[in-house]
């Protein structure tokens, strides 16, 4: 059922922990054997691959890097070996997102087009800082005049059942660093010091109060509380709370910042990603129809989840859609999908390419007919 199984095995076998590509993109270039451009920046491997056809560009956006496997004892099978058990495929990156890379490569290679150009832009720094990844590539693509009309992102978007969800936008991500200052001193002489933890309860109460005013999908989530000292007989100088907000509108961050600044603590905010919402157009409809034809199910749009590299193309491409495997085991031990899901993903990508090529052919035909009518000489 899985054609070109060797390609999938090669990709999973490579320990491409971000930002190390570990040779994955070279394997993909050799498999596709199309024109490619090396757009690497510093320690990040970036590659653009294009078919020789002409027409508006349908670009697949993906990444070859994966997160570290974590404790190997928690894996039932080696994370960097493709293992098939009971119709399931295991391996780090299987759903995020080497499975989708394989599906697109297979569909791109076996689906001829005559009215559109197919492309694949991949980076090895999506799971990390992203500094030298797609963000850094955009100026080079502008220079090459290779801007896509449609973008398909292969992130794992499905939730409970494969094909139940696609993303046509993403929330932004803001990190806050909130520091409570005190006065360091000997723990045996607390009257000569000021323990910052005394204000910790009011800080947490403030966060909880703010959360009650926010939408459920935009809540403050604390991920770290650190003291400046970890010595057992020293009262620390300060305590820093680190928390994140996934937000749908920039105004939310401004409002939260203003409320946090009312407390006598030091506040720093870093916006790592701004939210984006893509146009809902013909390409999105074609994806929905491709999913319906393959799975007999209708997906729903969603903007939840983490950030994706699609945000870097939001100002350049009118229509960006994300669709991939189920995200349930992404970044987990024993990351996996079923053989059927992977096969169906390849079929959906194949159908999407065919439908997009056909639609563009019909548009060209209508344009030609209209142009000829315009130049008709009346008798």
TrEMBL record:
UniProt keyword annotation of Cell cycle present: no
Entry annotated with the keyword Zinc: yes
EC number: 3.5.1.18
PROSITE patterns xrefs: ARGE_DAPE_CPG2_1
Domain Peptidase M20 dimerisation, residue spans: 168-262
GO molecular function: succinyl-diaminopimelate desuccinylase activity
SUPFAM superfamilies to which the protein is assigned, alphabetical: Bacterial exopeptidase dimerisation domain, Zn-dependent exopeptidases
Keywords, alphabetical: Cobalt, Hydrolase, Metal-binding, Zinc
NCBIfam families: PRK13009.1
Stated name of the protein: Succinyl-diaminopimelate desuccinylase
Natural source organism: Candidatus Comchoanobacter bicostacola
């Amino acid at each position: 059922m899985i054609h070109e199984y060797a390609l999938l095995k090669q990709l999973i076998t490579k320990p491409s922990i971000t930002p190390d590509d570990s040779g994955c993109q070279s394997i993909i270039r050799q498999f596709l054997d199309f024109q490619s451009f090396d757009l690497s920046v510093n320690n990040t491997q970036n590659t653009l691959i294009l078919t020789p056809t002409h027409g508006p560009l349908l670009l697949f956006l993906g990444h070859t890097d994966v997160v570290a496997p974590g404790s190997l004892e928690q894996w039932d099978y080696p994370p960097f070996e493709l293992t098939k058990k009971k119709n399931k495929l295991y391996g780090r990156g299987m759903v995020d997102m080497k499975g989708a890379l394989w599906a697109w490569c297979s569909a791109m290679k076996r689906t001829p087009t005559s009215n559109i150009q197919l492309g694949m832009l991949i980076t090895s720094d999506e799971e990390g800082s992203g500094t030298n990844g797609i963000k850094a590539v955009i100026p080079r693509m502008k220079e090459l005049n290779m801007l896509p009309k449609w973008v398909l992102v292969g992130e794992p978007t499905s939730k409970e059942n494969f094909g139940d969800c696609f993303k046509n936008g993403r929330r932004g991500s803001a990190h806050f660093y909130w520091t409570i200052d005190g006065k360091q001193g000997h723990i045996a002489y607390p009257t000569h010091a000021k323990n910052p933890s005394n204000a910790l309860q009011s800080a947490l109460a403030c966060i909880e109060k703010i959360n009650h005013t926010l939408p459920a999908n935009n809540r403050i989530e604390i991920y770290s509380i650190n003291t400046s000292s970890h010595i057992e007989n020293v009262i620390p100088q300060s305590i820093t709370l680190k928390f994140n907000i996934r937000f749908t509108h920039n105004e939310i961050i401004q409002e939260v910042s203003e409320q946090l600044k009312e407390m006598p603590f030091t506040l720093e905010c870093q916006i790592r990603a701004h939210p984006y919402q893509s146009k809902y157009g013909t390409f999105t409809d074609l994806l929905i129809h491709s999913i319906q034809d393959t799975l007999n199910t209708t997906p729903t749009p969603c903007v939840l989840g983490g950030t994706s590299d699609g945000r870097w193309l939001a100002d350049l491409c009118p229509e960006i859609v994300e669709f991939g495997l189920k995200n349930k085991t992404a970044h987990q031990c024993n990351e996996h999908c079923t053989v059927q899901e992977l096969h169906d993903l390849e079929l959906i990508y194949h159908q999407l390419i065919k439908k997009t090529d056909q639609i563009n052919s019909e548009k060209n035909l209508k344009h030609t007919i209209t142009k000829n009518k315009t130049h008709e000489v009346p008798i």
